[in-house]
Structures are given as C-alpha cells and as structure tokens.
Design a protein that fits this description.
There is one protein chain. It contains 12 helices and 8 strands. It is α/β, with parallel strands linked by helices and 281 residues long. The chain has a domain of 185 residues: Rossmann fold (3-Layer(aba) Sandwich). A 6-stranded parallel beta sheet has the order 3-2-1-6-7-8. Helix 5 runs parallel beside helix 10. The radius of gyration is 20 Å and the shape is globular. The N and C termini lie far apart (40 Å). Pfam families: Put_Phosphatase. It comes from Lithospermum erythrorhizon.
Length: 281
Amino acid sequence: MAGIVVVFDFDKTIIDTDSDNWVVDELGATDLYNLLLPTMPFNTLMDTMMKELHARGKTIQDIKEVLKRVPIHSRIVQAIKSAHTLGCDLRIVSDANTFFIKTILKHLGIRECFSEINTNPGIFDDEGRLRIFPFHDFQLSSHGCERCPPNMCKGLIIERIQASLVNEGKKRMIYLGDGSNDFCPSLKLNKSDFMMPRKDFPVWELICKNRSLLECGVHEWSNGEDFERILLQIINSIILEDDTYKNGTLNLFSSMEFKAFESITMAAHHEALPKVLRVPH
C-alpha cells in the first residue's frame, strides 16, 4: 500500500456544485429555501426543505434522479479511481449528507473507492421522507471550535483520522477542499502533508491571507484537469520519496499496485509538481 490518506470535501470539490442547492433548485423549491435560509441553522433548513418536498409529492426516486444529473468533471472520477488503484486510502469529510453523497458516488461507480464518509446523517423515515440530522448534535453540546459551523468541525475529524494513522501504518495525508470550513482541517496538517485548495474559492482566499499558519505544502487547483494532474503528481512524489522504493524493493506495493503506479504516473513525469502557494507579499 502507498501509505497515503487522501481526504476529499464533496460539494464543489468532487462534484461541481452544492448538492443541497442542486436538489432544492431542481425540484422547484428555491423560493422557499431562500425565504427560510436566514431564519434557522442550515441542517434544520435542509430537513425542513425535505419535509416540504415530501409534502409536494416528491419521492425518493425523484431525489435520486436529480442527484444522478449533478455536474461533475470526468477527470475527477478518473483521478479518484487512479488514486484508489495506487493503494491510497480515500475518505470524505463533507457538510452534505450521507444519502446525497452515497447516491452520487454509486451512480458514478466510485462508492467502493472510499473507506470512510464523514458527513451529516441523511435517512428516510417510515413515511418515505428524507430526514437530515447534524453530524454533531449542537443542541446537546458545542464541539468547541469557533472557526467551524456548529454541526461539524472538520478539523476535529482530521485529528481523529491522524490519531488512527499510527496504528494503521499510514504516513502522509492529502486534503482537497473549497469552502471556508476546509480551512480548519488545513491547519491540522503536518509539514509532510499537502493541502489542495480550489483556486478563487473561500478556503483558497483564507489560505492566501493566513499562509504562515499552515505547516503543510499547498498546491492550488481550478478544474478537473488540474485536480487529476496535481493529485497524481503529489501521490507520485510521495511514493518516490519513500526509502523503501528508493532502495529498489517492491515491498511498498503488491504487483498489481506497482504496475498501476508505472502506468498511471508515467504522464506525471512530463510535468513538475506545481509550485507551492507561498505567503503573499
């Protein structure tokens, strides 16, 4: 195994939109959503919207069909498959919900690429209505992080994953995200890790303003081609730095993983790793 954990945000990172807004808009409830948005916490809002859509006669299948049409760049799907083939441990940390994420991943044929999905629970009740609950029940207690929304601190999730890596024998982490709630986890990354913020999105702006707070390497991306190229180049660079690989042994990989490494990373040798995002002057 490559000993690399790759953590993805979902909305506007794996898919090219916000899944909550997409479902609301496609099912014709945008006006009510905009009316209620300033009045309640976001998880409560989405739970309320699902109740309204159910009252309007929208079914589970209607929601699934909308999710199957969500925009996504084909190279992002291929990048995920390639990283998984190379032996990376892929995980999701997202403020969407389990039903939306799993439905989309299954439709794209990449559900089994991910070992873990950390997100808000989305389950159907006995009446067939989708219920959305917060990842962290902020009505009972606070998670204690002032940077993050009350229902989820992604930084705490990353700390939990990091604590597990020692026992699992994994060494390095790559994090990809776009939103302001992806800034907190970027602060938890170590100097041997990498952050891939989406350029001109909130987390990229926060990192540009606070670059000195991050220990990790930072490589920005803009679109699906960037996503694939930069992610595979970083994975390639980590693998080649491993002393086991340098010493000419193949213990790092199974034979299948080694063949995948040779074929997938061949293109990466044609371009250098993108320059690190540095502190602006």
